[in-house]
Structures are given as C-alpha cells and as structure tokens.
Design a protein that fits this description.
The structure is a homodimer. Chain A has 16 helices and eleven strands. In chain A, α14 packs across α15.
C-alpha cells in the first residue's frame, strides 16, 4: 500500500471521470504530491480554491477499508492487475473533452483485469430488437467459446444480451459501469450484476455509491473501448451511445465492427452508417470478429509472444518517447519532448508508463533507458 | 440497312453470347468481311469447318424482317440507339472465358437503350425472402422516382420485385434476358415481360426463339452490369448469379453496392461477404445508390455535361489508344498497339469505337486523330 495508490483513490473522487485536467496534473506531479499540494493549498491555482476543503472530507484509507470489506478492490497503474491496454488512452486524442487513463479502477468479482483473454466489446442500443439481442447473445457465446472475454455495459438491450450470451457460453464477461460497482443501474439488473460479481467482473472508475450521469456514461465508454481489442456494435440508432464507444475504439486504433440488420430497422441505422462510411467492418459471426481482433490461432503463437521484447505493445506515444530517451547520459523531460516532437504532459505520462514497465529510469538529472534494455 | 448490320445478325447466331473468339474476329475483320469469308470458306481456319454450312442456313434478312414485323428491333454499334456503355466491355478483362460487347442486341419495347436515364442494375437471388423483395421493390421505386432507370433480369425473386417496384414508381425499367426477347423464362413471367415490352424494354443478345442456358445467363450478366452505372445486390446466397453480375460491374469499374439484411438470413450472406471484403459498398436506400452512381443533382450539371468534350466517357482502353494515335501522320494499328502497350485485337476494337465517335479516322496508311479533335 503506497501513498500513491491512496492519493489516486482520493483524487479520483475529486473530479469527474475522464477529466483531462486531473489526469494531466497527476501525470505531471504524481498523485501523492498533487494530493499533498492540494491539501496544503500551495499548488491549487489550477483547480478551484475549495478543492482542499473537499479533499479533506475524503478519507481514502477509510474508503479503501470499507470497499475491501465488501469485496471491492482498487486497482491503479503499477499494480499487477492493472490492464496495460488502458495506458493507450494516455496516448490518444481526447473526445468530447474527455480522455486519458483513469486514476484507478474499482473492481468487484473474481476475474483479474490483467488476465482477460482477448477481450472484445459487444455494445449496442438499449432499445434493441429481438433480432439484435438474439444476435448479440449468439455472438458473445461464440466469442467466449473461442476463448475471448466479453466486455460491455450493463444497460437493457444489447449490453444485457451480450452478458447473457457470454454466461451461456461459459466464458468470462465484464460489465463496466458509469456508477459505483455496488450500485445497480438499471435497478432491474441487480441480479445480473450480482451474478457477474460472482463469476466475472464489475468495473468502474467511480467510487462505490456514486450515481450515473450522462457524462459518466460517455467517460465509461472510453474504458470499454480501451479495455478491449475491438468493439462490435450490434444495433445502434443514429445517436446511440454505442457509436461513442465505437469512436473511442477508432481513436485507440482498435478495430470497429458492425453487425448489419434489416435496412427497415431503425436500431440498425447507426451500424449501417458506420459500415457504409468505412468506419466499421461488417461482421456476421464470432469468427469474423476473431479474425480482426487477432485471437484466431493465438495459442499457436503464445510461445513467441512470451519471448517478445518488452518494447512490444507500447502505445504510440510511448514508442515515440522511448526513441528519444538517451542510452547513457540522462536528459530532462522537456529535452525528450523536443526530441520526440510531443507535448510535455504527454511525454511525462509516457515516461511514467515506460518507467512502470522498467524500460526507462529516472535519475536526479533526468531520464535514460533502463540498463536491461541496452542491446537486448 | 448495311451489310455490316445483317452480317452481325447472322454471326451472332453462329456462336454463343460472350464468345471472345467471335468478338475478336469481328473486331479484326469487320462483320461483313468475316461473314463473307466464312461463307466462302477462305478464312475459316479459326472456326470449325462446318461454319460455312451453318452460316448458309442463317438468312439474316429474313430473320430481321420477321423480327421487325413482331416489333423487335436489332441494334448494333454505330446505330443511334446503341448504348455506348456496352463498349466498355471491349476494354475489360474476360470473366469465365466470356466478355466483349455483344455483336448486337434484340430489343422489344418503347424505351430507347441510348436514352436510359442513369440506369442502375438491381439484382439478387431467385429464392429471395419477403424482406428482400420488399426492399428491392422499395429501392427500385425510389430510384425511378429520382429519375433513374432500373435494369434487371426476369427471374423470380429480386429481379421480379425490381421491375414491380420500378413500374409502381412510374419509371423506366429494362429486362435483359438469357433467351430470345419473344420468350418468357420463367413462363410465369409472360405477363410481366409483355407489360415491360409495352412500357419499358426487353433486351437480349440471343435471337428470337432461342432458349436460355446456364452459360447464356452468365453472358447476360455482363450486359446488365455494362448497361448500368452501378449494380445493387439486394439478396444473394454465397453462390448466387447476382454475385457474377457484381463481378462484371467491378471489372467495368462501376460501383458495386449491397443491401444488408439479417445475419441470420442465408440469402443475405453473399451480400455481407461482398461488403465485408470491400468489394461492395453498403447501401440502404435509393439516395445512397444515387450518391454512388452520380445521378444526384444531375439536372444541375446537365448543361456542363452537354458541353463536355467528346473524349469524356471513353473506356480505359480507348483512352490509352487515343493517346497513342498520331495527330498528323497516320500510323498502322500495330504501331499504335506498340505505343499504347496494348494487344493488337484490343487496339483494333478500341480504334473502331473511337472511329464511331468521330475521334479518329482511318486513312489508307493507318489511323490518325480526326480533325475536329485537334486543339479543341
């Protein structure tokens, strides 16, 4: 248990999920120092002046104890369970003023987030048709039978059908919420969520007890897209939130896929637009999805992967930054930013991620490549 | 009435539609000379020796008189009614050993083939679902209401629905047959075809009285694709003939479009494959089709089009050839072929097409650009 973890827990309750400002300050100062400075009132210019007062009301140790007693865990970057895929959010452009990796995730359920096998998002309309829910359930069952995990929200319609199908297929499934993981929204899904907490995972960046809002749903969508290798939209009317998730997947360079339906069906219109515009690839069954998410024949290449070099699977920003980090003589982050041609905040966030992977090290005079990297 | 027209009529009955050899010989020698040589037995090496005997049995003047009395006309290249779009077949690669423009077309009905407004092919499965036939009829009605003509076959299912929709929309519609235009195949479509002959057009490259065969259907498909600005496939199982028409459209650089359907419906599988592979663009309504076939707002640009230069709308081969034709001193076709980097037969066929458009002229020593072209 470090100060950093608790500071992240406290800070995560101060702002709204997806807040660029909060993520940027944490990337710049570190959570513990930001927390201390905000409480001390010295560095508060960037936030409102009542921040210290609000932060004093948050007792992260007590919150964590309470959550732990209820079987809810708090996962932050650097933890074994932290899913590296979320770091890609730090290297991608904001959408509707939101973005960046969450400060941490609350998790309820036995599934470990770092061990989800080839996770695929299956999302769509709340006002789905019978066709849509049948197809979503069938697709999700097929995905888990082929070894993938399913990730979705917890809404009526396609979300619910995706979990139902995954459970029927006997596979792992994860619900990502826009409220605390101890809450059921919609209330009718209390049993579904309890069941997922017993055999899958229920995840949120919102602290236990928090309610959902429209903006929290939008921020939540980025987590669904980032946690997975690709997003399948089954039915989505033209203004459906599922299209927002698809937008996040595209920003993160994950495949966006769409299941077509009758052209006479309004809930398929948004999907057809995605496919028609080239934003999504048409898929009709689990095999099509697996082909695009790269999960087919994965067991065959697993040994090769295990031997892969640590630089594999870096975000684009991390790749650019690591090329700019000196091998011998440390350089300060602003010099690295100039070399990499990236913004200072983005570079600091990427350096943090690289340090967590043991690829770079920080010395008093700046950053350089970690010794293990050299020549390997 | 020229010898060439009658010779084409006779020769068209000698081979099967789509015969590359026949089209090549006509392009090389001209129909009248080929006809005479085959009858005289001097140039018959390329065809079987019984050709002369078979050709003697064909009396093209009598055939034409009979057809004319029954309201059937014979349209050949150079005729006012000849649809230039068919010439694109001469510049495209063969498919399944067939290709090239037909020697001529038999036409029954008041519509003139050279005056079809923005024709669009609407094709699909014989074993269509109610969904498919409803969508095909609705789409075709929308197309003709927006000023397009519809072109299809005359089969059960999507073909029949396309004509029904076009007629309901009050617009022009054309059936292209794999048998004589005086025959009804399937027999149940006798009334439909008679109706089309009264208010639209029924077209075939097969002489009156001829029966359909599998190969004639494949050859017919190239005409549907070539006559139109784009092909829409509404429902097509994985081995449907409609996919063959789509293949021809792609070869001719015409847009291929597909209407999606439920992924649970076998007749939509072929369409979904086309879209998934990128061979077809997903369309859901007439406006989507018009956008791709360039017919939207056409009345707005009509004046610009009328003033378009004669070189517009040439086939790719014709464009390559015209660049190789000298401005002043005539060159023989083999020299033009070397300059253009094309085969001699292809070049001769392109030169014929260019001559019909008045773009090149043949002198005793070879070909050169027609005077009107120079500097315009």
């Amino acid at each position: 248990m470090t100060d950093e973890r608790l500071a992240r827990l406290a800070l995560s309750q101060l702002g709204e999920p997806g807040s660029l400002k909060m993520a940027g300050l944490v990337a710049e100062l570190g959570a513990a120092r930001l927390h201390a400075e905000l409480l001390g009132g010295t560095g508060a210019r960037a936030l409102r002046e009542d921040v210290a007062a609000r932060l004093e009301d948050i007792d992260p140790g007590r919150d964590l104890d309470r959550a732990t007693r209820r079987g809810i865990r708090w996962v932050v970057p650097g933890d074994d369970e932290w899913p590296d895929a979320l770091d890609d959010l730090d290297g991608s452009e904001p959408l509707q003023g939101m973005g960046r990796a969450p400060l941490g995730l609350w998790v309820r359920g036995p599934l470990r987030l770092d061990q989800l096998p080839s996770p695929v998002a299956v999302v769509g309309s709340r006002s789905a048709t019978t066709y849509g829910t049948d197809v979503a359930a069938e697709l999700s069952a097929g995905l888990v039978r082929s070894g993938s995990a399913v990730v979705s929200g917890a809404a009526f319609g396609i979300d619910q059908a995706a979990h139902r199908g995954a459970l029927a297929g006997g596979g792992p499934t994860v619900a990502v919420l826009a409220c605390g993981v101890d809450r059921a929204y919609p209330a009718a899904h209390q049993r579904l969520l309890d069941h997922l907490a017993e055999c899958g995972a229920v995840v949120s960046e919102l602290a236990p007890g928090r309610s959902p809002t429209r903006l929290r749903f939008l921020a939540r969508n980025r987590l669904i897209a980032a946690l997975t290798r690709g997003t399948v939209v089954v039915e989505a009317a033209v203004r459906s939130g599922a299209l927002n998730t698809a937008g996040w997947a595209a920003r993160l360079n994950r495949p966006v896929m769409g299941v077509p339906g009758p052209v006479t069906s309004a809930p398929s219109e948004g999907v057809h637009q995605l496919i028609r515009s080239g934003a999504a690839t048409l898929v009709t069954r689990a095999d099509d999805v697996l082909e695009l998410t790269g999960a087919i024949g994965e067991h065959l290449v697993e040994e090769v992967r295990a031997a892969a070099r640590p630089r594999d699977r870096l975000t684009r920003a991390q790749q650019q930054v690591i090329e700019a980090v000196p091998l011998v003589r440390p350089a300060p982050s602003d010099s690295i930013a100039r070399t990499a041609g990236l913004g200072l905040m983005e570079v600091r966030s990427a350096l943090d991620g690289l340090a967590r992977r043991g690829l770079v090290e920080q010395l008093p005079t700046g950053w350089r490549l970690a010794e293990a990297m050299d020549g390997s």
